[in-house]
Design a protein that fits this description.
heterodimer, A: 493 residues, mainly beta, Immunoglobulin-like, seven-stranded mixed sheet, five-stranded mixed sheet, 5 helices, B: 605 residues, mainly alpha, elongated
Chain lengths: 493, 605
C-alpha cells in the first residue's frame, strides 16, 4: 500500500520543481534585482544570485549551459557554488524564468549570462555610513570576487574609543599587490600606514612646507614613489537639495613621497589652483591629475566663499611628464578643458595598457560621490577623443572606479539603486572600446543592497588578499609613532 | 513576609507606568529591533551580541509603556527569586535578593539626558539579562562534581558564555568559582580546576574572539557594558553594573543559615536590605520636572499633537508659578514655538508663556541637536540638516526607529522614491512602526495627496527657498534664526512668510520686522492682525516715530497695554535687569513689550 503514495509524491514533486508543461510566452524579460539580464560577467565570478521582481504566485528559474541545467524555485534565486561552477564552464548560461499567476504559467523572455575573461580575485573597499562629522564605524573590507567571503582589513573600532575617534581612508595597492599597500589613519594615533615589501611603516607625511599629510594616493608602478594630493577638505550640507552633502577643498596641492629616502617633494602647489587625484600612466612616466583655478584670499572667510562659490569651481584634466630615474618633472599639459564646457573632472584612472583614461565628470567640484549628475567618461589616450560611457552611466551618481589588472574589467561606485548608498558595479571592456552592461557585485543574499545601510566606496582590485591580519595592523597602529618625513625642494626639468 | 516581597515590584511597575512612561518611550524610540535575518547577523559576530539582540527584542515592548514596564518588572523579580533559590537565601531575608535588581533600576532610571548619548544597543535590558545569564552560569557550572567534566564544562562555558554575554558571563564564572571554593561539596581538585580554567578563560576569551571581530581589545573584558563617552565616566557607566555582579560573588560566602540563628539579626538585615532596595533607586532616580516635560513635548511633537505640546508647557509653567527661579529650557521654548506656528497661534500666544533658557540638569553636555535637532529642522522645512543629524546619530549611536522614520520622511520630501521604499521596508520589519510605514506607502508617490497630508502639508510650503550649502555648526536655534532671518525666498509661501515674520519678531529687529510684516499682510491677508504682531508694530512705530502709528489699525488693548507697560517701566527705573523683570506686574509680563525690553541674555543652542 505504501508504494503508490511514494510514486504519487514523486510525481507531485517533479511537477512542482520542473519546468511547467504548458505556458504562455511573454515578450518581456523578467525584472530582476540586481539586474543580471544579458550581462557579461568574469569567468571566475561568484554566483549571480538575484530576486525576481515580478508579480506572481510561483516562480521557476532554469539555468542551463547545454550540458548542465539547474532549476530553482521561488522568487529568490540563489545558486550553490558547486552548481555555479558547473554552469560557468561553457562560457554562457541561458536563463529562463517561469511565473505562475492563478493557474496560468507564463514563460518570460529568456536571457543569458556570458562569461569572459577572468577578473582579479579580490577587491577591497571602505564600508562607511554616510555622515558629515562622525566616523565611529569605518572598516576597510576585502572581498573575494570568486565567492562571497569578505574580511576586515582594518576597522577603526579596533583601536579607537569614543573619546578618541579615528578616521581611516584611502587604501591603495602597488600594482594590485598587497605586499605594498597603504591606508591613512587620521586623528587618534594618526599616520599613513604603509606595507613596504611586507613590512609595516607608519609615517606622518605632513611637513612644514606642505598643506597637509598625503591624502589621495597613486603608487608609482615601477619606482618607490607615491604621488599624493594634499588637501584641506571640509564638508557642509545642502538644505533642500537631494545631493545632501557638499565636500570642498580649501586648499589642495600634489606631492611626491620618496619611499626609500622617506622624503616629500612638491609636484604642484599653485596657491590659486586646487590640484587633486593624481594617477600614474602604466609606465610611470606621466602623472594625470585634475586641477581647478580659484583665486580668493587666504583669510577667515575663505571657507564661506568657497562654499558659496563651489558651483563655479570646475576642475580640468592635466598630465605632467615625469622621469622616474632622475625624479624630474616636465610642464603640465591640459588634456581636457572641462571647465570651458561648464563641467568638472575628477578621479582620472588609466587602463593597464595605457590606452584608456576613465574619469568622473560632473557639473562642479571634485567630490562627485555627492553629485547626482556625475557620470563616467572615457578618453582614448591614443587620439585624445572623449565620450561619456552611456552604456554604464545612470541618472544617479557614478564616481570612483578602478581597472582590473588585465584591463578587461572596471569596478565603479554608483548610487543608481537608491540615490543614497554607494554600491559597487562591474563592467567588461569589449574589443571595440565599449563596455558591457554593468552589473552589481554579486551578493549571497541578493536583496543585500536594499537592506544594508552602509556605503561601499573606493573599490580597488587586488591580485591577492591582504596578508597582514587586522589585529596586527591594530597593534602596529597603537604601538608605532608616525615617523616624520623629510621635505625636499621641488625638482623641475 | 513572603507575600510582602511582591510589593516592591508592583510599586515599581506602577511608578514606571504612571510617572515615567515618557522616559520609557524615549528609550524605546532610540532602540531598534528588526525582524530581519541580515540585521540579526550583525549581532552574531560580536561577543555579547546575542545578549544585545535579546535586549533589543525586549526593549521594543516599551512602546506600550505599561507592558514594557511589566516585562521589565517581571524579569527583575525573576532575577531576585532566582538569586534566592540558587543561593538558598531564606524568604525571611528575601529583600537581600532584590539588591542587584535595585541597582539595575537605579542604573536605568538615573539615565536622564544620558538617554540621548548611550551607544550600546539594548543597554536598557542588558545588565538585567546579563545578570540572569550569570545566574544561569552559576546554576549550570556548580552542579558537576567530576573533575574531568568540570574542566570541559568550565572551558566551554568560559568561551561560549563570553560570546553570548561578554562581561556578564565572565562575572558569572568567577561567582561560580567562589561558590565552589566556599562549598564543602567539592574535592580539592574539584575546587582548584574551575579556578584555573576560569583564570584561563578570563585571560584568553576576549583575546580569542578578538581575532574574528573588530572591537577594541582593551574593552574586551567589559564587553556588553556601555562604553564611556561624552563625559560619562566609569563611575556612571560601568561601576554600578560591576557592583551588581559583586553581589553574586558575595552571596555564596554568606552562611545564611547561621545568620538566621538570631531572629533579631534576621529582622535587622531584612529591614536594612529593604531600606537599601528602596533607597538606591530613589536616590539615583533622575527626577527633573523640566526633563519630563521635555520628553512629553517631544513625544507630542512627534505625534503632531500640537495642543498637547502647549498644554504640557502651560501645566509646567503653572506648576512653577510660585517659583521665581524657574525657567523653561530652550527645548520647551522651541517646541512650544513650533507647536504655535503649526497651529497658526504664534502671533496670538507666543509671548503669553514664560520665556527662558534654564540649563538642563545634565551631567554632561548633551547637544540640542541630539535632542530636538531632527524634529526642528524637518518641521521647519530644512530636510538636509535633519538628514545630517540622522546620519550623525546613526553613526554614533546606531540607527533607531526614529532615525528610520526621519530618513523616510526626508526621502519622501526630497522625492527619493527608491530610498523611501528602503527605509519604509526597514520600518515594516518592526512590530510597532509598520503601521506608520504602511500609511506612508499609501501617500508618498502622490505629490498632491502628500501636500495635503500632515506633517508634509506644513513642511513642503517651508521648502520654498533655493538650496543653501550650509552648516548648523551644532547650533540648532542659531541656525533657524539665521535661516528665517536671511533673505526672503523669491517664491515664498504664505506659511513661510508667517514663520519668517515670527522669527523677525523674536529677533527684535524692526528692520527685519517691517518688510516681513508687509509681506505677511499681503500673502496671508489676515482678517485681523494677531495680538503680538500688533504689539510689535505699535512698539516699533513708537520707538521710530513711524507715521504708521496713525494709519495701522491698532486696537485699543494694544495701545492701552503699551501705555501701562511704559508707565510701569518708568516707575521701576534703573534696576538690574533681573530685578526690573521681577518688578513688572504679572499682567504686563506676557506681552511683546516685556519680551522686547526685559527678556534678554537668553543663551541659545
Amino acid at each position: 500500500m505504501r508504494t503508490p503514495s511514494v510514486i504519487l509524491l514523486a510525481v507531485t514533486f517533479a511537477a512542482c520543481s520542473g519546468v511547467p508543461g504548458t505556458f504562455d510566452k511573454s515578450n518581456l524579460k523578467p525584472s530582476l534585482f540586481p539586474d543580471y539580464t544579458d550581462v557579461t560577467a568574469p569567468s571566475n565570478i561568484a554566483p549571480l544570485n538575484f530576486i525576481i521582481q515580478e508579480e506572481g504566485d510561483r516562480f521557476i528559474t532554469v539555468l542551463e549551459n547545454g550540458r548542465k541545467s539547474i532549476t530553482v524555485t521561488g522568487k529568490q534565486v540563489r545558486i550553490k557554488d558547486r552548481q555555479w561552477k558547473g554552469l560557468k564552464k561553457d562560457g554562457k548560461i541561458d536563463v529562463s524564468v517561469y511565473k505562475k499567476t492563478g493557474s496560468q504559467w507564463t514563460a518570460m523572455q529568456p536571457f543569458s549570462i556570458t562569461l569572459e575573461d577572468d577578473i582579479d580575485p579580490f577587491i577591497s573597499y571602505r564600508q562607511i555610513m554616510p555622515s558629515v562629522d562622525s566616523y565611529q564605524d569605518l572598516s576597510i573590507i576585502q572581498r573575494s570576487l570568486e565567492s562571497f567571503r569578505s574580511k576586515v582589513v582594518y576597522s577603526n573600532s579596533m583601536v579607537q574609543d569614543l573619546g578618541n575617534g579615528q578616521c581611516i581612508n584611502c587604501h591603495h595597492y602597488r600594482n594590485y599587490s598587497t605586499d605594498n599597500m597603504q591606508f591613512h589613519v587620521r586623528q587618534y594615533l594618526g599616520g599613513t600606514v604603509m606595507v613596504i615589501d611586507g613590512n609595516l611603516r607608519k609615517v606622518n607625511l605632513k611637513t612644514d612646507s606642505t598643506i597637509s599629510a598625503g591624502v589621495y594616493p597613486a603608487w608609482h608602478p615601477t619606482h618607490d614613489y607615491i604621488a599624493y594630493s594634499t588637501n584641506m577638505t571640509y564638508q557642509s550640507v545642502h538644505t533642500v537639495d537631494p545631493n545632501r552633502i557638499e565636500v570642498v577643498d580649501l586648499e589642495s596641492d600634489l606631492i611626491l613621497y620618496n619611499i626609500k629616502d622617506n622624503a616629500v617633494s612638491v609636484i604642484e602647489n599653485d596657491p590659486d589652483r586646487f590640484e587633486c587625484f593624481p594617477a600614474w600612466s602604466p609606465d610611470g612616466r606621466m602623472l594625470y591629475y585634475v586641477s581647478a583655478r580659484y583665486e580668493t584670499p587666504f583669510d577667515d572667510d575663505r571657507m564661506d566663499r568657497i562654499f558659496a562659490d563651489c558651483r563655479s569651481i570646475k576642475y580640468n584634466l592635466y598630465c605632467k611628464p615625469f622621469d622616474p630615474d632622475t625624479r624630474t618633472w616636465g610642464k603640465s599639459v591640459l588634456l581636457f578643458d572641462a571647465a570651458s564646457a561648464g563641467k568638472s573632472v575628477t578621479l582620472p584612472r588609466v587602463s593597464p595598457d595605457g590606452r584608456w583614461l576613465i574619469f568622473a565628470l560632473g557639473e562642479y567640484g571634485v567630490f562627485h560621490i555627492w553629485h547626482r549628475d556625475s557620470d563616467l567618461w572615457m578618453m582614448d589616450l591614443a587620439d585624445g577623443s572623449i565620450r561619456p560611457l552611456d552604456e554604464i552611466n545612470s541618472p544617479e551618481v557614478e564616481s570612483y572606479h578602478s581597472w582590473s589588472s588585465n584591463g578587461k574589467w572596471i569596478i565603479f561606485s554608483t548610487r543608481r539603486e537608491d540615490g543614497a548608498y554607494t554600491r559597487l558595479y562591474l563592467s567588461h571592456l569589449e574589443a571595440d572600446g565599449h563596455f558591457s552592461k554593468p552589473f552589481a557585485l554579486p551578493q549571497k543574499k541578493p536583496g543585500f543592497n536594499r537592506n544594508y545601510m552602509y556605503s561601499f566606496n573606493i573599490p580597488e582590485f587586488m591580485k591577492e588578499p591582504v596578508h597582514i591580519t587586522p589585529r596586527k595592523f591594530a597593534s602596529f597602529i597603537e604601538a608605532a609613532p608616525a615617523s616624520p618625513v623629510r621635505y625636499e625642494p621641488k625638482l623641475q626639468k | 513576609m513572603a507575600k510582602a516581597r511582591w510589593i516592591l515590584p508592583v510599586a515599581l511597575w506602577g511608578v514606571l507606568t504612571f510617572f515615567s512612561y515618557e522616559f520609557l518611550l524615549k528609550v524605546e524610540e532610540r532602540s531598534l529591533f528588526l525582524y530581519d535575518a541580515l540585521w540579526l547577523k550583525d549581532f552574531l559576530i560580536k561577543p555579547s551580541g546575542i545578549l544585545s539582540f535579546l535586549s533589543l527584542f525586549l526593549t521594543q515592548f516599551l512602546h506600550i509603556p505599561w507592558l514594557g514596564a511589566l516585562i521589565w518588572t517581571i524579569l527583575l523579580t525573576l532575577s531576585a527569586e532566582l538569586t534566592r533559590i540558587i543561593f538558598r537565601i531564606p524568604v525571611t531575608l528575601s529583600a537581600l535578593t532584590f539588591i542587584p535588581a535595585s541597582i539595575f533600576v537605579a542604573y536605568n532610571m538615573s539615565m536622564g539626558y544620558t538617554v540621548y548619548l548611550t551607544n550600546l544597543p539594548g543597554y536598557f535590558y542588558m545588565p538585567l539579562l546579563g545578570y540572569l545569564w550569570a545566574l544561569l552560569t552559576v546554576t549550570v557550572l556548580r552542579k558537576e562534581r567530576k573533575a574531568a567534566v568540570l574542566l570541559i564544562l568550565f572551558l566551554t562555558w568560559g568561551f561560549a558564555g563570553y560570546y553570548i554575554a561578554g562581561f556578564y558571563s565572565l562575572a558569572g564564572t568567577v561567582a561560580t568559582c567562589i561558590y565552589i571554593s566556599v562549598s564543602g561539596d567539592y574535592s580539592r581538585t574539584g575546587k582548584i580546576l574551575p579556578i584555573a580554567v576560569t583564570a584561563v578563560s578570563l585571560l584568553l576569551a576576549p583575546v580569542a574572539f578578538a581575532g574574528t571581530t573588530t572591537y577594541n581589545i582593551s574593552n574586551g573584558w567589559i564587553i556588553g557594558m556601555p562604553e564611556q563617552d561624552y563625559g560619562l565616566t566609569f563611575t556612571r557607566m560601568q561601576l554600578p553594573l560591576m557592583l551588581a555582579m559583586v553581589c553574586l560573588a558575595i552571596a555564596p560566602v554568606i552562611k545564611f543559615r547561621n545568620v538566621l540563628s538570631g531572629k533579631g539579626i534576621t529582622m535587622a538585615i531584612q529591614s536594612a536590605a529593604i531600606a537599601v532596595v528602596i533607597a538606591v533607586p530613589s536616590l539615583f532616580w533622575f527626577r527633573d520636572d523640566n526633563f519630563k516635560a521635555e520628553l512629553g513635548m517631544i513625544r507630542a511633537t512627534e505625534l503632531m499633537d500640537w495642543d498637547k505640546v502647549t498644554d504640557i508647557y502651560s501645566k509646567l509653567q503653572n506648576r512653577h508659578e510660585k517659583d521665581p527661579s524657574w525657567q523653561p529650557t530652550r527645548v520647551h521654548v522651541l517646541l512650544k514655538d513650533l507647536a504655535l506656528i503649526k497651529t497658526g497661534q504664534e502671533g496670538e500666544r507666543a509671548y503669553g508663556f514664560e520665556n527662558g533658557c534654564k540649563k538642563q540638569k545634565t551631567r554632561c553636555d548633551v547637544p540640542m541637536a541630539f535632542q530636538i535637532g531632527k524634529i526642528l529642522h524637518l518641521n521647519y522645512g530644512i530636510p538636509g540638516i535633519c538628514n545630517r543629524w540622522c546620519d550623525e546619530e546613526a553613526v554614533l549611536f546606531g540607527c533607531n526607529y526614529l532615525t528610520y522614520k526621519y530618513y523616510a520622511m526626508i526621502a519622501i520630501l526630497l522625492n527619493d522614491n527608491t530610498l523611501t521604499e528602503e527605509y519604509l521596508d526597514k520600518l515594516e520589519k518592526t512590530l510597532f512602526y509598520r503601521k506608520w510605514a504602511r500609511e506612508q506607502r499609501k501617500i508618498y508617490r502622490d505629490r498632491d495627496l502628500l501636500a495635503q497630508t500632515a506633517p508634509y502639508d506644513m513642511i513642503i510650503p517651508l521648502m520654498c527657498y533655493d538650496d543653501i550649502i550650509t552648516s548648523d555648526l551644532n547650533g540648532c536655534e542659531y541656525f533657524l534664526i539665521n535661516h528665517f532671518n536671511g533673505p526672503m525666498p523669491a517664491n515664498s509661501t504664505p506659511l513661510y512668510d508667517r514663520v519668517a515674520l515670527y522669527f523677525a519678531l523674536d529677533s527684535k529687529q524692526s528692520a527685519l520686522f517691517w518688510p516681513r510684516f508687509n509681506i505677511y499682510l499681503n500673502s496671508n491677508k489676515p482678517s485681523r492682525i494677531a495680538r503680538f504682531y500688533q504689539e510689535a508694530a505699535y512698539l516699533f512705530c513708537n520707538i521710530e516715530n513711524d507715521p504708521r502709528l496713525e494709519t495701522l489699525p491698532f486696537n485699543e488693548k494694544t495701545r492701552n497695554l503699551y501705555k501701562s507697560f511704559m508707565q510701569s517701566a518708568s516707575r521701576i527705573g534703573m534696576k538690574s535687569l533681573k530685578d526690573a523683570r521681577n518688578a513688572i506686574p504679572a499682567n504686563l509680563r506676557h506681552s511683546y513689550y516685556f519680551y522686547f525690553y526685559y527678556v534678554n541674555e537668553l543663551e541659545m543652542f
